[in-house]
Design goal:
It is a single chain. This protein has two domains: 17-202, MFS general substrate transporter like domains (Growth Hormone, Chain: A, Up-down Bundle), CATH 1.20.1250.20; 211-399, Growth Hormone, Chain: A, CATH 1.20.1250. 79% of the residues lie in helices and 0% in strands. The protein has 407 residues and is mostly helical.
């Protein structure tokens, strides 16, 4: 543990690193707030989770479609033009949702505004990942940076919903949605005035294709593994609440999810502090393979305490998997479309989460409350095999070495 602490001390002492980690936490706050606040606000306005969920779905689908387009524009012209446009359009579209509901304009204008808000969602989330690729050249430093980044995401997904829940309980859904919009504007200001932008830049023109990173077979393998990883997590997102409901204790679903997130944060912090010499593909394969064990144990355990413990253990391997995936994207994507590659990664994550949650719900209804955990274990087993296939495809045996890049 002392060696891990020493490595983190040296890591955070490098130029701008501590500031960039703080910026990543603040810039992603809307990531954990806007979707939930919008859902609850629309549920109260329309009196239906089905309608509220449909509009939220429009928002996220538009975001998934718009993100790769934004990524390509950033790679060609730098981040500033895209940030300026989205910093105006996205908050304006969110305010339009608020105004349309308050004025009783009906469902269609709200859906249009939601699509606009999603398509023009600021690229701060993906840029906080892209900047680590530019900040460091050594793969070990990148692995540590992406591990810390994964922990920051877990904090966002814990703090954001907690803040929304507190606002809803204390002031109502309208105020909660309004605060989420204010936080969005503030996070954009923090990001654009931080040192982050000097690490994200347009690259010199090179050979470009219509498919961009999708034309690279190695990246397609990474994206396929990304989809599998996200699908496995999606099974858990619906599996824990489903199992808790089967126990007639729905509140336990939130407890299991919280323990999984806590495990992910701790696992990511420990993983980032280790000095590992194995190729990152092998680390990815090992983390995914290890995760299958606690996932499968969910099916065999009935005691609540034991079930909660394996939820923590399974979660402890999520952040290491995400960190390895990010390192692979940062290494394999050529500079001319590095940001677009990360946006495609996000798109496959969103698609995988949706697929896992939808399939998990069907499995609960058709086969029982514990079956999604077996499906998640199978998905992670496939991810492990895919990571080994990446290693064979690349022919790499050891990670890259080198020093940190200075601005």
């Amino acid at each position: 543990m002392r060696r891990i602490a020493d490595r983190y001390r040296d890591f955070f002492r490098q130029a701008d690193v501590a500031a960039l980690v703080g910026v990543a936490l603040v810039a992603r706050m809307p990531f954990g707030m806007v979707g939930l606040a919008m859902l609850l606000f629309l549920r109260e306005a329309f009196g239906s989770y089905a309608l509220a969920g449909s509009i939220s779905g429009v928002y996220f689908v538009a975001m998934a479609i718009g993100a790769p387009i934004q990524g390509r524009l950033i790679d060609r012209a730098g981040p500033v033009p895209t940030l300026l446009v989205t910093a105006v359009v996205h908050p304006a579209a969110l305010l339009a949702i608020l105004a349309a509901v308050q004025s009783g304009a009906g469902l269609s204008p709200v859906a249009v505004a939601a699509a606009c808000a999603g398509a023009f969602a600021p690229p701060t989330n993906v840029l906080t990942r892209t900047l680590w690729r530019h900040r460091f050249t050594a793969e070990e430093d990148r692995r540590r940076a992406f591990a810390v980044d994964a922990v920051m995401i877990e904090l966002n997904l814990t703090l954001g919903p907690a803040l929304v829940a507190g606002l809803v309980a204390g002031t109502g859904t309208t105020v909660a949605f309004g605060v989420a919009i204010v936080v969005t504007i503030a996070s954009l200001w923090v990001f654009t005035t931080s040192p982050a932008l000097k690490y994200v830049r347009a690259e010199a023109a090179g050979a470009r294709t219509l498919l961009g990173p999708l034309a690279d077979t190695r990246l397609l393998l990474v994206f396929a593994a990304t989809f599998g990883l996200a699908t496995g997590i999606g099974f858990l997102e619906v599996g824990y609440p489903g199992y808790a409901t089967a126990l007639s204790a729905p509140a336990l679903g939130g407890v299991f999810l919280s323990l999984s997130s806590l495990g992910s944060a701790i696992g990511g912090a420990l993983f980032g502090g280790l000095a590992l010499r194995a190729a990152i593909e092998r680390q990815f394969a090992a983390a995914a393979a290890l995760m299958t064990v606690p996932l499968a144990l969910h099916y065999t355990l009935d005691a609540t305490a034991a079930f909660a413990f394996v939820a923590f253990l399974a979660g402890a391997l999520i952040a290491p998997c995400i960190a390895c995936q990010s390192v692979l994207v940062s290494r394999l994507a050529p500079p001319r479309f590095i940001t677009e590659a990360f946006t495609w990664s996000s798109t496959f994550i969103v698609a995988g989460l949706g697929a896992g949650m939808a399939s998990g719900g069907w499995l609960i209804e058709a086969a029982g409350a514990k079956v999604p955990f077996l499906a998640s274990a199978a998905a992670m087993g496939a991810v492990s095999l895919g990571a080994l296939a990446m290693l064979r495809a690349s022919g790499r045996r050891e990670p890259q070495t080198g020093g940190a890049k200075s601005p």
